[in-house]
């Protein structure tokens, strides 16, 4: 059906839908009243959009916004008559069937759409996108404000339409070319064809399971657009919603017995779709990217960087609280910004990269309860859904935990911070403790204030729970803080202080394992944040590090036993949570399980500096302890399951599946010559392979700190209420 439009005659007056007169100019041969048979201007007819000419204007709104000439020259196309039963032996389509056909035109201008939430939207306009004008560009705020903005805060200029959201913040709105529009519509039809006719069911699945704990979309706005046509979205966002929802295909009775669409087809399409929209971003671009990054194997540091750049183009790093945009969009911008903040910080952690978002250029206000439009009344009663209220709390507490993680990374793992601590030499351990204590207290407070409903043990019958992801992230943050401390671990440190720090580290590790043991199917089958896969591996690495720096064979065996239990729990749990297999493979290839993997024998030798007054049985020889393990050399090396699985940090395995000193002669393999640089003189007594699993920080010698320990008050107290060492 053709859109409703006025007829046009030279200086003729017609009545609009609100009864107001509309002045129109055009072809003098055309005249008449406002009725359905008359056509719009040439440009609006090509776009199949509604053509409206406001009072006192001679061109329509769409041509005015695009800076195009408004003409009425081309002859209207003849309407196609609908077939009736019996013609050409075919059956006429029902109106419902026609709704699902590709080609239904989307809305071009939300301003003229009665009752739409999208009126006055800035970041979700159809067929145009906005770009934030920064302070150092060729545009200056004071000069821009001299422009004659209309009541909507818009002014049509040569490069595009300027839009003012407050006196200090401006955007330039640029229209998309017809070629871009046509390509986007074609891509949307391709996406829909892959999953048709299950689109609505998948959208419902998405909002039932994923959206509650990852609320980066306004549900009402999304459903309003989807009810009209799927063609109002961008291809990557529509594909991302479908791809994630397909993971819970069996959680809908109407779908479980039907053939499941091939998600791999959509997976192959989304890289190009994202590439198409990143140069003309909208809020939907960031939404799509964040959703794609939550896929089990979808994490990408490069895409994270592109999303941060796109978000800055959209002004998402600014305080939008007083902008002249709809209230729902202000809330959406805040939620999206904080979701991107989390993606950046946790991505920096698991990839070992510098964060891309910095505090000096971050003015986003904290989220409030009013920023979440969903409430308990909107919760789906169908079993297998996620709880809306718990999901909101998970999202909020994940943000506050991420702010603490950001400070951990900034305090201990930037190049400047690392260089400073290394320069402290023998004081590095004490300086690290001083810097870590306030952050540790913040983590303790965060955990103490966690609502009881977010505890892993709190579950609602027949509901999925994402609390496991939140609690795992907490232990990953704890472990990261303690890794910063024990990297300067040395026997030269005061025995009592070293015992306190190692006991605290041991408690974090065992508590993390206990968390994983408590996970139930309702946790494993729920939505997990993207970093969960590597957070599990980080905990395993921490346990391996404690094993490698053990003081005795008893301590070494304790950590080996705990890691074996951890590996077993993950192995059996991975049947219901595929992302856990990554850590299982990492532990299988770890030097901790050398007996199982026929790998190198023993652990790194910790050299202890002689304490003043201590008598050594061998004068001049440092006291050492080297664990000895018995091996059955008659067995051949076992297959290292998962050893070559891709590591998020560098894109290749971080573990060496074939250790240096293993004999490969029986399998016909020859080792290449060892071209590694020689160790320093302090390692002359090491046997081959003894030190290769040490981190570089552990290679440093630490001088005795006896003189300094007497002048410092060392934290010793044990905090029973929090079940942790308050000062390590």
How much is the average pLDDT?
77
Q: What's the tally of helices? A: 24
Within the largest sheet, what's the order of strands?
3-6-5-4
Instruction: State the helicity in percent bands.
Output: 40-55%
Overall 3D form: globular
Give the low-pLDDT segments: 1-37, 80-101, 597-645, 649-728
Overall strand count: 8
Report the structural category: mainly alpha
Strand content: under 5%
Distance between the termini: 73 Å
- Kindly report the oligomeric state of this protein: single chain
Query: Which sheet architecture does the biggest sheet show?
Result: 4 strands, antiparallel
- What is the alpha-carbon Rg in Å? 32 Å
Notable characteristics:
5% strand; 728 residues; 8 strands; 24 helices; mainly alpha; four-stranded antiparallel beta sheet; 41% helix; globular; disordered C terminus; disordered N terminus; two-stranded antiparallel sheet
Can you walk through the features of this model?
By secondary structure, the protein is mainly α. Helices cover 41% and strands 5% of the residues. The protein is built from 24 helices and 8 strands. The chain has a 4-stranded antiparallel beta sheet. Helix 5 packs parallel to helix 8 and helix 16 runs antiparallel to helix 17. The longest helix is centred in the middle third of the chain and has 25 residues. The termini are far apart. The N terminus and C terminus are likely disordered.
């Amino acid at each position: 059906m053709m859109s409703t439009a006025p007829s046009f005659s030279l200086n003729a007056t017609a009545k609009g839908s609100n009864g107001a007169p509309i002045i129109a100019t055009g072809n003098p041969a055309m005249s008449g009243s406002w009725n359905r048979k008359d056509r719009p201007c040439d440009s609006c007819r090509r776009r199949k959009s509604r053509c409206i000419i406001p009072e006192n204007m001679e061109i329509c709104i769409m041509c005015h916004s695009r800076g195009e000439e408004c003409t009425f020259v081309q002859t209207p196309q003849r309407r196609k008559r609908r077939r009736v039963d019996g013609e050409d032996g075919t059956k006429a389509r029902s109106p419902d069937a026609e709704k699902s056909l590709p080609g239904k035109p989307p809305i071009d201008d939300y301003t003229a759409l009665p009752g739409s939430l999208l009126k006055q939207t800035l970041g979700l306009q159809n067929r145009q996108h906005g770009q934030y004008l920064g302070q150092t560009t060729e545009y200056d705020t004071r000069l821009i404000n001299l422009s004659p903005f209309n009541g909507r805060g818009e002014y049509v200029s040569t490069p595009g339409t300027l839009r003012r959201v407050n006196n200090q913040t401006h955007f330039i709105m640029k229209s998309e070319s017809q070629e871009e529009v046509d390509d986007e519509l074609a891509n949307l039809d391709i996406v829909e064809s892959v999953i048709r006719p299950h689109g609505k069911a998948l959208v419902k699945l998405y909002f039932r399971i994923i959206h509650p704990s990852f609320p980066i979309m306004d549900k009402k706005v999304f459903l309003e657009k989807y009810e009209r046509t799927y063609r109002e979205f961008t291809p990557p966002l529509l594909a991302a919603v479908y791809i994630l929802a397909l993971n819970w295909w069996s959680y809908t009775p109407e779908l479980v017995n039907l053939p499941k669409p091939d998600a791999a087809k959509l997976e192959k399409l989304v890289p190009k779709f994202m590439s198409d929209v990143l140069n003309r971003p909208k809020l939907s671009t960031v939404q799509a990217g964040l959703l794609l990054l939550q896929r089990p194997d979808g994490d990408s540091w490069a895409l994270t960087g592109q999303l941060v750049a796109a978000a800055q183009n959209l002004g998402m790093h600014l305080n939008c609280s007083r902008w002249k945009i709809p209230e729902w969009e202000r809330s959406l911008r805040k939620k999206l910004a904080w979701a991107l903040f989390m993606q950046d910080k946790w991505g920096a952690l698991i990839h070992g990269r510098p964060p891309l978002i910095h505090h000096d250029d971050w003015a986003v206000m904290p989220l409030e309860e009013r920023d979440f439009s969903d409430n308990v009344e909107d919760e789906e009663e169908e079993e297998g859904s996620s709880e809306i209220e718990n999901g909101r709390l998970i999202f909020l507490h994940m943000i506050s935990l991420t702010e603490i993680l950001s400070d951990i990374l900034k305090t201990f793992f930037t190049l400047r911070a690392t260089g400073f601590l290394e320069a402290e030499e023998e004081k590095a351990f004490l300086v690290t403790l001083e810097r870590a204590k306030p952050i540790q207290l913040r983590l303790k407070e965060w955990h103490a204030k966690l609502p009881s409903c977010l505890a892993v043990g709190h579950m609602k019958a027949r509901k999925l729970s994402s609390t496991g992801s939140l609690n795992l992230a907490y232990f990953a943050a704890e472990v990261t803080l303690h890794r910063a401390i024990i990297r300067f671990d040395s026997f030269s440190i005061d025995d009592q202080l070293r015992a306190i720090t190692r006991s605290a580290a041991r408690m974090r590790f065992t508590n993390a394992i206990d968390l994983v043991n408590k996970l139930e199917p309702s946790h494993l089958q729920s939505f997990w944040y993207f970093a969960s896969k590597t957070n599990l591996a980080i905990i395993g690495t921490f346990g391996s590090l404690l094993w490698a720096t053990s003081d005795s064979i008893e301590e070494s065996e304790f950590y080996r036993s705990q890691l074996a239990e951890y590996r077993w729990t993950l192995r059996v749990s991975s049947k219901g949570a595929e992302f856990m297999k990554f850590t299982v493979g990492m532990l299988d290839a770890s030097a901790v399980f050398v007996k199982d993997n026929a790998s190198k024998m023993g652990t790194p030798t910790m050299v202890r500096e002689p304490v003043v007054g201590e008598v050594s049985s061998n004068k001049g020889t440092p006291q050492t302890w080297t664990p000895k393990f018995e091996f059955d050399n008659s067995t051949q090396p076992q297959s290292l399951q998962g050893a070559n699985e891709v590591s998020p940090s560098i894109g290749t395995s971080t573990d060496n599946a074939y250790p240096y000193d293993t004999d490969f002669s029986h399998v016909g393999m020859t080792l290449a010559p060892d071209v590694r640089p020689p160790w320093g003189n302090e390692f002359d007594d090491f046997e081959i392979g003894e030190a290769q699993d040490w981190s570089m920080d552990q290679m440093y010698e630490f001088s005795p700190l006896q003189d300094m320990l007497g002048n410092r008050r060392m934290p010793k107290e044990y905090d029973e209420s929090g079940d942790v060492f308050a000062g390590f």
